[in-house]
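Chapter review: from sequence to fold.
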Amino acid sequence: MPPIASSAAVAARMSRQASRNTAQELAVRRLLHRGGLRYRIHVPVPGMPRRTMDIAFGRVRIAVFLDGCFWHGCPDHATKPRANAAWWRDKLNRNIERDRETTDHLASAGWTVLRFWEHEAPEDIACRIAAEVRTRRPEKH
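The token string follows.
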């Protein structure tokens, strides 16, 4: 059971947090599409209920995750809430462990997993994804 928010302002802010179609996701997807790449979004991770890839290139088995610094424990930008500190520490540690499990599961199934932080520039992310897709695509004759 989640703890009660430390204030009404905190409750309102957390309820507005987007988990899909964030500004960064939209920017990266726009750049990929503009570059001629086609992909699927919010694709379920095979064999792992309630887990989805943010962007997936199914034919070449590339899974892309765009992780928020707070929710996924960015080593540079993660913060540690003071209110309900123990609950948040456990919650965020579970998120980090779930990310590891998902990455390991996909990698063992032959997928290339690309993870990016929300503070990374969409242009850089799109370039790295496009380069990986190009290396995995079969040659056209």
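Two observations follow directly from the output. The chain has one domain: 19-136. Residues 48 and 109 are 12 Å apart (CA to CA).
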